[in-house]
Write a structure and sequence with these properties.
Layout: E1 3-7, E2 13-18, E3 21-26, E4 32-37, E5 41-49, E6 52-59, E7 63-70, E8 76-93, E9 98-105, E10 108-115, E11 121-126, E12 135-142, E13 149-156, E14 162-169, E15 175-181, E16 190-196, E17 202-207
Antiparallel strand pairs: 1-2, 2-3, 3-4, 5-6, 6-7, 7-8, 8-9, 9-10, 10-11, 12-13, 13-14, 14-15, 16-17
Length: 211
């Protein structure tokens, strides 16, 4: 299963987050000791911000969720669920204390902005559900100057071929541009990762015309 290191500052142990539990792992013996559980969540992404662990995914009802815990004791600060079927597989923070969650609901890319302090929803939005009715999320990027948000992924077709897709949203969640790299061979094209450069350009990686 999934196990991701979130804290490696101690010489004796490290902290890792799994699908349903957070563990302390002894570096000498590699023995895992459960710290706390979140049994209603399947996690896809996480952020450690000071003592706050943010986890995104889906709950037992297959609804999108983002949860905030104290990483030291497992006490829950807040949990956000919008009631939509699906999951958040990407979360990011900006420098103003906001959390962004991107994922899929009803097979469509969607995005939300939350308050870091209490998990209150600021806005929620979808991509272009008319031109691209079935889409998948792979990466989320918040522009360093907080001018825009980019969600990268794929536009999916009934024959299982996909096109690489980028949605650009403004800071209010309004979709203002989409870029589509069409797969000319009806196979698989997808954007899976992005990185912003200091000149405000974005590098994107993925696959084009790939089985």
């Amino acid at each position: 299963g999934q196990l991701n290191i979130i804290n490696n500052t101690s010489a004796a142990s490290l902290t890792a987050v799994g699908l349903t539990q957070t563990f302390s792992i002894d570096k000498t013996t590699l023995v895992k000791t459960p710290l706390f559980s979140y049994p209603t969540i399947t996690s896809f992404d996480h952020i450690l911000a000071g003592d706050t662990l943010l986890i995104s995914g889906k709950n037992a009802a297959n609804q999108q969720v983002v949860s905030a815990f104290n990483v030291n004791n497992g006490i829950s600060f807040w949990q956000y669920s919008n009631g939509l079927q699906g999951y958040f597989n990407q979360i990011r923070l900006d420098t103003s204390g906001h959390v962004y969650g991107a994922g899929e609901s009803n097979n469509k890319i969607n995005l939300c902005k939350l308050s870091m302090s209490n998990g209150n929803e600021i806005w929620r939005t979808y991509g272009d559900t008319i031109t691209h009715p079935k889409t998948s999320t792979y990466d989320l990027l918040i522009n360093k100057n907080k001018e825009y948000i980019v969600v990268a992924g794929s536009n999916n077709h009934l024959n299982n071929s996909t096109d690489a897709l980028f949605y650009f949203f403004d800071i209010h969640g309004v979709l203002y541009e989409s870029i589509l790299k069409e797969d000319e061979q009806n196979i698989v094209s997808v954007s899976v990762c992005m990185e912003e450069l200091i000149d405000n350009k974005i590098y994107a990686g993925g696959s084009i015309n790939s089985f």
